[in-house]
Amino acid sequence: MKTFKKIAALAMALAVVLSLSACAGGGNDGYTAENTEYVIGFSGPLTGGAAVYGQGVKNGAQLAVDEINANGGLNGIKFKLEAMDDQHDPTKVATNYANLLEKGMQVSLGTVTTGPGKEWTKLSVEDNVFFLTPSASGDDIPKEANGFQMCFADGNQGKVAAEFVNGTGLTKIGIFYKSDDPYSDGIYKQFKENLSSSITTVEAVFTGNATDFNAQISMLKECTFIFMPIYYEPAAIFMTQAKDIINKDAVYYGCDGFDGLAGQFEDFSIIPQEVSMLSHFDSNAKEGAAAEFVQKYTAKYGADTLNQFGASAYDCVYAIYNAMKKAIDGGKEIPVTISATDLCDILKGEFTGEFSYSGVTGNNITWEDNGYVSKEAVKYTLKVANSAAQ
Questions:
Q1: Is 99 among the domain residues?
Q2: Whole domain around residue 186: which residue ranges?
Q3: Up-side HSE of residue 21: CA atoms within 13 Å toward CB?
Q4: Contact 51/118 with Cβ under 8 angstroms?
């Protein structure tokens, strides 16, 4: 008899545990997180070689959260930002994602970089968790209905960069890219597809953690325009090694991976060539929303991590806030304990509808049904050629 009672008690205990576990998890229908704030989560490189991006995103997002909360939140409910460090390593994403769900994440900024972003997309699709990434630019990051980008997709960056080059009158250019990096290779392929057939290219490739670019520099030394869809660390190494070899009147032209490049040099003027980039944010803006953001950001965090990634994250938080407010004004209920999947369905409806947003990185920003952002891209000069400055 005692044995039967023990078995019955264990069965009841197991049933309770199973019932509770069925209610756990940010994206499941039985979500029971006892949130007192709306929780926004993301994974990014807060340490390591790409930390300037992750810290920029964390700071920009937190700045927006603090401002929203200071103004009363959303109908009196405040927001909370939760950030996890992935060191730009895709293998860390699954653990970060699970931890963020445990912390009550209901909506997210996805990841900061593309490699980890592909892992995040897989996980968030399974749970129907909405994300608006500030900077994971891979073409297939928002391929599912729950994902959107505030940054330009790699294909868009490659296409816009090619359109710019097509209009320069150049007949020959150099290209320096990293073939085993999804970000670099993705932009490169779209750039080539959209480049005019009248323009010939000299292409220098590297892989892995290469730091000696003398062979590539030798290939490109006669080029007066070099397209470099790579991140700022290898770009800085290349430019330093090439400063006395590449034509001093040449132009180095990159995409959003160039953001943070100036911080790699104690004196940027040691690079004699012009350095430009395709962007949606001007860190040297003197007026408008971008200038206001620069002033607020640097006052709170300094200038070391000021970049378009932080500006984009700031816009992401405000876009999510505005979309939630629009949904509530339209009669939708968004309680503080809303599940991630229910909030995802609401936000998907807004972002694929008539919702638009104007902020630091553009005006009248809208999104396509595939999650790609639609806004203006601009060429910014990070550094003029030394000969032009004289």
A1: yes
A2: 155-279
A3: 6
A4: no
Provide the 3-class DSSP secondary structure of residue 337. Answer: coil
CA distance 231 to 354: 34
Report pLDDT digits (tens) over 266-305. 999 999 999 999 888 888 788 999 999 999 999 999 998 9
Among 220, 255, 279, which residue terminates a domain? 279
Dump pLDDT digits (tens) for 368-380. 999 999 988 788 8
Question: What is the dihedral sign for C-alpha 312, 315, 321, 323?
Answer: negative
Find out whether 230 and 177 touch, Cβ atoms under 8 Å: yes
Q: Does an H or E element contain 174, and which?
A: strand 172-178
Asked whether 186 and 257 are in contact (CB, 8 A), the reply is no
Residues with Cβ within 8 Å of 44's Cβ and at least 6 positions away in sequence, in order, are 53, 54, 57, 58, 83, 84, 85, 86, 111, 112, 113, 116
Helix, strand, or coil here: 245? coil
**Tokens for 195?**
């480049």
Task: Give the end of a domain, one of 255, 279, 303.
Answer: 279
Residue 15 lies in a domain: no
- Bridge partners of 84? 43
Indicate the pLDDT class of residue 145, thresholds 50, 70 and 90: confident
Would you state the pLDDT for residue 390?
Answer: 53
pLDDT tens sequence across 92-141: 999 999 999 999 999 999 999 999 999 999 999 999 999 999 999 888 99
In this structure, what CATH number is given to the domain that contains residue 327? 3.40.50.2300
CB atoms within 10 A of CB 15: 10
Report whether 46 contacts 145 (CB < 8 A).
no
Mean pLDDT taken over the chain: 90
Confidence of residue 255 (pLDDT cuts 50, 70, 90): very high
Are residues 144 and 292 located together in one domain of the fold?
yes
Going by C-beta distance under 8 Å and a sequence separation of 6 or more, which residues neighbour residue 152? 137, 160, 255, 256, 278, 280, 373, 377
Q: Contact, 107 vs 344, CB < 8 A?
A: yes
* Pair 252, 160 in one domain: yes
At residue 44, the pLDDT reads 98
Same domain, 305 and 249: no
**Type of residue found at 246:** I
